[in-house]
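Action item from last meeting closed. Structure (126 res):
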């Protein structure tokens, strides 16, 4: 998707519809949409060539959902260690990811020239 401010909303809407089609339970779906929103916003900040790639995978037994956001930026792989303060207007995205996801991390992307940030959720399945 293009690295535009409107892309986070488009990603949320697309993911919401896909999860509904996959019959992912409501709470897991809501958490996944929030994770996609936060990870997309983060990827948009680091995109250098104007593109980000979002991917979702639901395991064959529908017990695990993996969300990936790929950017083409050269930002370091390690997430920032500074936590947002009470008066800060941003900087809480990865904290939310850490709290909601069953697991998450980042690595060099095999699909772009930047990195991939991923998050996984466990679901009861359809």
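Sequence:
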């Amino acid at each position: 998707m293009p690295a535009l401010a409107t892309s986070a909303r488009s990603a949320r809407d697309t993911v919401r519809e896909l999860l509904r089609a996959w019959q992912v339970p409501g709470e897991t779906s809501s958490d996944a949409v929030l994770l996609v929103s936060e990870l997309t916003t983060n990827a948009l900040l680091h995109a250098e060539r104007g593109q980000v790639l979002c991917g979702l995978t639901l395991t064959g037994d529908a017990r695990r959902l993996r969300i990936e956001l790929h950017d083409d930026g050269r930002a370091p792989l390690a997430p920032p260690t500074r936590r947002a303060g009470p008066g800060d207007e941003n900087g809480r995205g990865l904290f939310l990811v850490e709290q909601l996801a069953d697991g998450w991390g980042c690595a060099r992307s095999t699909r772009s020239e930047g990195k991939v940030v991923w998050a996984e959720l466990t679901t009861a399945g359809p």
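Note appended to the action item: The chain has one domain: 7-77+90-122.
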